[in-house]
Amino acid sequence: MHFVLVLSSPCTGFCKPLCELRSRDHTALRSGSTDDLLEKARRLRDEVSQIESSKAERQREEDEREQERLNEEKEALRQKNEQRLRYSAEVPILKDMGEEVLERVDFPPRLKGGRSRIVAIQAPLPLGLVLGQDDALPGLTTVDEVAEEGNGASAGVQVNDIVRAITATQTTMETPTWQLLAGGIGQPKTKRFMYSVDGRPLEEVLAAIGSNRMDPDGRDVWLVLERNDGDSD
Fold it and tell me: What ranges does the record give for the region Disordered, renumbered to this chain (predicted)?
């Protein structure tokens, strides 16, 4: 006859300490694995944070460089516009169809050192000015004298101003095509236009100023002057 010993529980009696040991081993393993995962997660977060910080720093540096470039372009444009306004003036320009339009025209400085500016003045004839040219500066017409109560003085012309351009008039014969076919000689028409004084002889400059008397509309003479910064308007 054989007897079989049946244990109702695998962890009772003498085997209990072995089960507890295995349980503690499994707990220790699980605890170690969890710590490793947490450490890896922490390191991963740190790496991601460093990458994001590095990207943000690079972006900030790029933004600063771009802003600096834009500021430099803006400053260069401001200086360019300021330079153009300094050496330009709005004057009446005669167009092909005979109308006058105010346009800004550039007048490169004749004086060195960037200490001058362009001034546009209108005054009726007679101007009360004495103009002259220096042999040392050929083609440079200057205002040598200004009559105190003259029209030029009232408009703001000053001694030592350099005359750069003036309005002048010219009379031409204009004949429509139908009159030419009929043998007509046309009709005289006087036009006003801006006349550059640079490099012109004094006699021609004076004649151009005097030609404004022929303006059928009796308009004021335009004078474009270059003036030293030390002079007031």
Answer: 48-77
Are the CB atoms for 156 and 223 separated by under 8 Å? no
Domains: count for the chain: 2
Asked whether the whole model's pTM tops 0.70, one would answer no
Query: Which of 29, 61, 84 finishes a domain?
Result: 84
In this prediction, residues 207-227 reach a mean pLDDT of: 96
Which residue bears the tokens 């393993």?
Answer: 29
As a whole number of angstroms, the distance between CA 102 and CA 93 comes to 6
Q: How remote is the C-alpha of 204 from its chain's centroid?
A: 38
Degrees (nearest 5) of the Cα angle 6, 11, 13? 75
